[in-house]
Amino acid sequence: MCPCTCNARRAGELQRILDDLPTRLRVQTRTQGLLLTGGGARLPSLHGWLTAQLAVTIHVAPDPARATIRGLARVCLTPAAVRTTVAPQVH
Q: What is the mean pLDDT of the chain?
């Protein structure tokens, strides 16, 4: 599969995820951007291309190959912080 097709699929999936976010998180994402992690974040010009396709600023994590596991470790150590940040607020 050519890189263009893969990038288009990535952008399509990210757009679907953005569309499904609760309003509060969608607004936050639009203003603060997304953090690209994992080995794919190292692909040349991917973050610029995604920014153009999604109209959302894409930031590349420092050391993206290890960023996901470091974030998961933080979640495991402080699950309550994640619940207050990500979980929908019930009124």
A: 82
Q: Judge whether 91 lies within some domain.
A: no
User: What is the number of structural domains in the chain?
Assistant: 1
CA distance 48 to 68: 20
How much is the pTM? 0.68
> Whole domain around residue 8: which residue ranges?
3-86
For position 48, which CATH number holds? Answer: 3.30.420.40
Q: Residue 1: its pLDDT value, please?
A: 57
Which residue type sits at 34?
L
Token output for 62: 């420092």
- Whether the CA torsion 4, 13, 11, 64 is positive or negative: it is negative
